[in-house]
Design goal:
Elements: E1 18-19, E2 22-23, H1 43-50, H2 65-69, H3 71-75, H4 83-92, H5 95-99, H6 113-117, H7 124-138, H8 145-160, H9 165-175, H10 182-194, H11 210-237
Antiparallel strand pairs: 1-2
Helix pairs in contact: 4-7, 7-11, 8-9
Bound molecules: iron/sulfur cluster (2 copies).
């Protein structure tokens, strides 16, 4: 029987073979395309699967429902952010390609729409973060402005338990070697003033009882960092990481 609904066939054909009206090229349905994988490298997949939050990665059948509903990809037009593609690259072990997204992958805002929509029960949000952790743990990715902003943000927050926005932007801009245009600075200053958050430096607000809580939080972050480094060492010993 010939294929009548041609609009469903969207993959780029390189060859076409029809016998008695039946398409036998084997590439008419993109779901079936990657049946044969000759250079499969399961190290990333094994690592992600071995993590408590990554164990559902193998259920993914690449339908793309998660990406279609992802707010970053769809609503904010961040086409580089594609959870289905991250999972695919991790599944087949295309680590070099995956590393191009070392920074982008952390943009996930944990809205969990992908998890709600996934027909296979993949905990997409957790899997995406676990893939990100793999990339981070095995290194090889240059620090991005987003990473530097995250660091400045965390440090700022840890100081008093409440964000000192003016100081954050001052520190971050200085670190990037930039100076905010006067007009922009004025606009931001007025916004902070109106919202009652212009108190900065020693005058900035402080969360009550923060000294103890902040110390616990800092210790926890340092512990996470230590584990991350250990994990990186384990992956490197197992032959993972950038090649
Ligand atoms: S929705 Fe689920 S099965 Fe479909 S691509 Fe995303 S993770 Fe994979
Ligand atoms: S949790 Fe992350 S990956 Fe999932 S839909 Fe939200 S932003 Fe996209």
């Amino acid at each position: 029987m010939p294929i009548v609904e041609k609009s469903l066939v969207t993959v780029d054909r390189t060859e076409h073979l029809e016998i008695e009206g039946i398409d036998v090229s084997g590439d008419w349905n993109s779901f079936l395309r990657s049946r044969v994988q000759v250079d499969l490298d399961v190290r990333v997949l094994d690592w992600v699967r071995s993590q408590p939050q990554g164990d559902t990665i193998s259920r993914c059948w690449q339908c793309g429902t998660c990406t279609a509903g992802c707010c970053l990809h769809t609503d904010y037009g961040l086409t580089d952010f594609n959870p289905r593609y991250f999972i695919y690259l991790a599944q087949v072990g295309y680590e070099e390609e995956l590393r191009k997204y070392s920074s982008t992958i952390w943009r996930c805002v944990s809205c969990n729409k992908c998890v709600e929509r996934c027909p296979k029960g993949v905990k997409v949000e957790e899997v995406v973060h676990t893939i990100g952790s793999y990339l981070e743990a095995t290194g090889g990715a240059p620090e991005s402005p987003a990473d530097r902003f995250d660091r400045a943000y965390t440090e700022n927050l840890l100081r008093r338990g409440i964000l000192d926005e003016a100081d954050l932007f001052r520190t971050y801009e200085r670190g990037e070697g930039r100076t905010m245009p006067a007009r922009e600075m004025l606009r931001m200053g007025l916004t902070l003033l109106r919202s009652g958050r212009l108190r900065t430096g020693p005058l900035a607000h402080r969360t009550r009882g923060w000294r103890r809580f902040g110390a616990v939080l800092r210790a926890k972050l340092e512990e996470d960092e230590r584990r991350r480094r250990e994990s990186a060492g384990a992956v490197a010993r197992a032959g993972g990481g950038p090649r």
